[in-house]
Every structure is written in structure tokens, then in C-alpha cells.
Write a structure and sequence with these properties.
The chain is an alpha/beta fold. Helices cover about 50% and strands about 10% of the residues. A six-stranded parallel sheet has the order 2-1-3-4-5-6, sandwiched between helices.
Length: about 220
């Protein structure tokens, strides 16, 4: 049997190259994606055993990319590699179908073990947040009386692209939809989330881990 095949996804080239050097002695790196949309396309073409993806990536977040892969019945195991020691993000990662959540600052020591764990149909979460994340995941069906805000796939895509500072025309070109459709989705987002400005949408996207926080956010 050959080495397990890995697909790596991160928007920082230096991180991708570092991961490849770390993992290639033990695994076969079959591809490297620089954004979430490229990740989805490469996963469909390469069928890796394990996908290791950052959460905050341009064009499409790692979370949303995994949602789309699961809809396509991808059999690849997913490990999120994140700088966020955030329990809520960890829980969301497992809810969308990931089998692992590894903090970047411990990747050199734990990533190989995480890969072997998920290949054996087990879940691996970095020890720093494992108790809180794994203690909550089985109870995700228990909801509060407060109704959850449910966004469509397209609304989530528009939210991320708006938060990245892209124009309406730019978003329309990326998603291959009309500008008026982008405006419609953005308006729906604001209504659903109870937000009024692009800056508020951006802050919400940052809190959800869709995009990294910029040095400053300028209000509308």
C-alpha cells in the first residue's frame, strides 16, 4: 500500500511549503491549494485521503469549502489547521464534517498523529481545546429557544466576499451571477443578521472566522 495522499490548502505559500516539507517523508502531498475555491476543485479532481485546510482562506473559507465537499459526497478526511484556539470554531469544524482540528502552533508536533487518527476513523482535536470542543459536539442537537439564523450557501459566499472588501461587480464576476443578484443577497444578509452596514457585516464575518481581522475597519 502506498503512502496516504494529502491535499494541503492555505493562502500563505510559506505555510504550504512548510507543511509539505514536514509531511512528505511520511505522506504523499498530491496538491496545494491557495484558496477555498481551488481546494474544492482540486479535491474533486485528486480524491486525496486527507485534506488539511486553513479555516480563513480567500474567496471561500475552509468551513464553507468543506460544506460544499460534503454535499458532493467527498470521502476525504478533513483536518482544519487553524491559528484560532476558539472552541466555537472547533465545534463548527466538526459539525460541518471535519475529523480533526489542529492549532498551527502545535502542528509540527501533532499533525502527523492527527492524520493517522482520522485515517483510522477517529477524531483528533488539539489538546489545548479538546475537552471543551469534544464535550460539546455530541450535544449540538440541543438548541436554545432562540431561533438560529440560517444562511444559504450563496449568502455565506457573498458574506465572505463582502468582508474581503470586494466590490459588487467583483463578487458578481467571482460567483458568475448578476450584480443585482449580489445586491439582493447582501440585502438579505443584513436583514437576517440585523446589521446595517458593510463594516458590521465584515465584523460578523471576522467573528465567524470567515476572514482574518484587518488592521482597521472603516465604517460605511
Amino acid at each position: 500500500m502506498g503512502k496516504p495522499k494529502l491535499l494541503l490548502a492555505d493562502d500563505h505559500t510559506i505555510v504550504l511549503e512548510g507543511l509539505a516539507r514536514l509531511l512528505e517523508p511520511e505522506f504523499e502531498v498530491v496538491g496545494k491549494a491557495g484558496d477555498g475555491r481551488e481546494l474544492v476543485a482540486m479535491a474533486a479532481r485528486l480524491h486525496p485521503d486527507v485534506i488539511i485546510a486553513d479555516i480563513s482562506m480567500p474567496l471561500l473559507s475552509g468551513i464553507e469549502a468543506v460544506r460544499q465537499l460534503k454535499k458532493k459526497d467527498s470521502l476525504s478526511k478533513i483536518i482544519f489547521l487553524s491559528m484560532h484556539a476558539d472552541v466555537e470554531l472547533g465545534k463548527e469544524a466538526l459539525r460541518v464534517g471535519a475529523s480533526g482540528y489542529v492549532l498551527k502552533n502545535s502542528a509540527a508536533e501533532t499533525l502527523s498523529r492527527a492524520i493517522h487518527e482520522v485515517l483510522n476513523d477517529r477524531i483528533y482535536v488539539s489538546p489545548r481545546i479538546a475537552v471543551d470542543v469534544l464535550g460539546e459536539v455530541p450535544q449540538t442537537s440541543k438548541r436554545s429557544n432562540r431561533p438560529a439564523v440560517v444562511l444559504t450557501q450563496r449568502e455565506r459566499e457573498v458574506l465572505q466576499l463582502v468582508a474581503e472588501g470586494r466590490t459588487i461587480r467583483g463578487i458578481a464576476n467571482i460567483l458568475n451571477i448578476a450584480c443585482r443578484t449580489v445586491v439582493f443577497h447582501k440585502s438579505n444578509l443584513m436583514d437576517k443578521l440585523g446589521l446595517r452596514t458593510t463594516a458590521e457585516l465584515t465584523r460578523h464575518a471576522i467573528q465567524c472566522g470567515l476572514v482574518a481581522a484587518p488592521e482597521s475597519i472603516i465604517d460605511d
